[in-house]
Amino acid sequence: MQTKSDILLNARTAVGGALAVLLVDDDPDCRMLIRDAIEGSGMDCQPFEVSNGLEAMEFLERRGKWSNAPRPGLIFLDVEMPGMGGQDTLKAIRAIPELDDTPIVMMTGVSDEQQMRQAAEHGANSYTLKPASGAQFLETVRASANYWLKIHQYPHHRIPQALCKR
């Protein structure tokens, strides 16, 4: 019988082998822009959307309607949300050992040095400001997704040694 840990570790992909990307934002327009940027990037990704931190934890812990949710390969997390905010959600995610290598990109419309420090202390991989322009916002998401899903290397997700130049 598989443990919860085994299930989380082995469930990196969504339907059809696409990498799951979790979008956590209370603003449906921001989720739409992030989703559009990911879907338009040419990367084999499947976005999943939740509107707050509690829903994110249900998804990540596979509770309720998310009982069959895949383990995300990337999480975009809004900082300012009602209820369980981004910082508390970040701390809760980082408390799950199986998700310690999942990149988390904090996104916010407010440039706040204290929030940035807290995000770094709580284990965020990136802290990104949401640009006011829709086009700039799309490009920011594309660049971030490209880095975390294609460029950054993990022990379990890396370019084979044979393809590396020496």
TrEMBL record:
The lineage of its organism: Bacteria, Pseudomonadati, Planctomycetota, Phycisphaerae, Tepidisphaerales. The keyword Phosphoprotein applies. CDD domains: REC_Rcp-like (cd17557). SUPFAM superfamilies: CheY-like. InterPro entries: CheY-like_superfamily (IPR011006), Sig_transdc_resp-reg_receiver (IPR001789), TCS_response_regulator (IPR052893). The keyword Transcription does not apply. It holds the Pfam family Response_reg. Keywords: Phosphoprotein. One of its GO terms (biological process) is phosphorelay signal transduction system. Residues 20-145 form the Response regulatory domain. This is Response regulator. The modification 4-aspartylphosphate is found at residue 78. PROSITE patterns: RESPONSE_REGULATORY.
